[in-house]
Amino acid sequence: MSVTDLYLIIVGMAVGFINTIAGGGSTLMYPFLIFLGFPIHTAIGTSRVSFVAQGVFSVAGFKSKGVFLYPFNLYVAIASMFGGIIGAWISLQVSETNLKKVLAIVMVIIAIIIIFQSKIKYKEVSTKLYGKHLWISSFIFFVIGLYGGFIQAGTGFLVIISLMLYNKLSITQANSIKGLVVLVFTIPALSLYVFYGHVNWHAGLFLAIGTSIGAWLTSRWSVNVNEKYLRYILTSIIIALAIKLWFYT
Question: What pLDDT was estimated at residue 223?
Answer without folding.
Answer: 47
